[in-house]
Amino acid sequence: MEAAWLVATATMAVVVLAGLRWLHEWVQEHGLGEKRRHLPPGDMGWPVVGKMFAFLKAFKSGDPDSFVNSFVRRFGGVRIYKTYMFGSPAIMVVNPDACKHVLMDDEHFIPGWPASTRQLMGKHSFVDIVNEEHKRLRRLTAAPINGFEALNTYLFFIEHTVISTLEKWAGMGEIEFLTELRRFTFRIIMKIFLSEEGESEMQMLERVYTDLNYGVRAMAINLPGFAFHRALKARKVLVDTLQGILDRRRETRARNVYPAKKDMMDNLIDVEDDNGRRLSDEEIIDILIMYLNAGHESSGHITMWATVFLQENPDMFATAKAEQEEIRRNMPPGQKGLTLNEVRKMKYLSKVIDETLRLVNISFVNFREATKDVYLKGYLIPKGWKVQLWFRSIHLDTDVYTNPKKFNPSRWDDFTPKAGGFVPFGGGSRLCPGNELAKLEISVFLHHFLLGYKLIRKNPKGPVRYLPHPRPIDNCLAKVIKLHEKSV
């Protein structure tokens, strides 16, 4: 009798749970009417949370690819699936052609980042603004970061910082290599955006950004103990600090005192639209928060992984080092440092960086939102639904890359992946405006590291954490050893 009761109870629980999932799917789709039939296959998950628990479980288990793979296994290789994540119904795209289509189509797709990201970055940052406002701010900020003249100007500071930083690390013993690299890249982006600010303020801001990052792709739960709650507190500190800097700048200008050379904050203060309107303090702060965050996170992580991959592959290390030695030998007599001309000769190193970007996938997913009903690969993307572009799955697609989980810079020899198959910095009108600066930082660092240093990790086989970005759990605890060769 007791066994029968247990069986009946278990059966009832299964029926109730299945009913909840069916009801959740019906609630999300019933307004579509007959158009429901054209949605791609998929799984909407549970009410409220959707598939978030499955997503978090996969990424925290050390096997992040198991999440998308579960859709492929259950629903076939269509590479477009329906789901419910980050509080919204969504279409997951893991097909390169479809990814390219969404990235290039500004008429039908606008940014669709989760509520947590929008709130943390601010309503005036690039993750939220659209159309002419986005184009205007991008024009203003792109050239001072990625333009030839800007990169040439930054190169001296970057190289000087690399040389002094590597020398310092070599004398520190065991360090958290990733943590120190993030400080290094943050120092560079701070110089570009807020050139006058002091070391103490810079260190404080860098620490606060760590908390901000952990909340960017978290569930928007504003309760103590949750990543989003800590990130909101971090944003408040950032806003207050940047407002203080902005106030000091305006006070200085009121006394008719202007800097000899403008940084990005100065440019944002001065810009006017066609009607003479200037940016508000809130707009300036949101733009700075976004750029300061994006401008050091990806560079720091990719530099670490590229260094680690090269150190783990002695033949690749030797090839990269030989290229850098040849570049040094061929520098004109009397030239004391690198120029952009030398950086552009780093062909193999460029492949190392691209391969690291592909394999590591700092931005594993990107978000858009459909502005009207769109049909993609024969499937409906309803108006208002989110579109998740799974860059990680695209970069590890066996139809595009042979043995995709193997680090192999030589795969880029005379190889161009299909459109939409390599998108580490996004694409279309929203291509990351700091991509060239990031590559310059990484190239200069690796140049000097290869010529004069080696890395000895304490836990080379240690576990990796994949949220918010792939990183060793120990932050790459290691020693930087200076070799007999000089790095300059």
UniProtKB/TrEMBL annotation:
Cofactor requirements of the protein: heme
UniProt keyword list? Heme, Iron, Membrane, Metal-binding, Monooxygenase, Oxidoreductase, Transmembrane, Transmembrane helix
The entry's cellular-component GO terms read: endoplasmic reticulum; membrane
- Biological process GO terms, please? brassinosteroid biosynthetic process; brassinosteroid homeostasis; gibberellin biosynthetic process; sterol metabolic process
Q: Name one GO molecular function term.
A: ent-kaurenoic acid monooxygenase activity
Pathway given in the UniProt record: Plant hormone biosynthesis; gibberellin biosynthesis; Hormone biosynthesis
Query: Topology with regard to the membrane?
Result: Single-pass membrane protein
Q: Return the InterPro entries for the record.
A: Cyt_P450, Cyt_P450_CS, Cyt_P450_E_grp-IV, Cyt_P450_sf
Name of the protein described by the UniProt record: Ent-kaurenoic acid oxidase
Tell me which species this is from. Answer: Canna indica (Indian-shot)
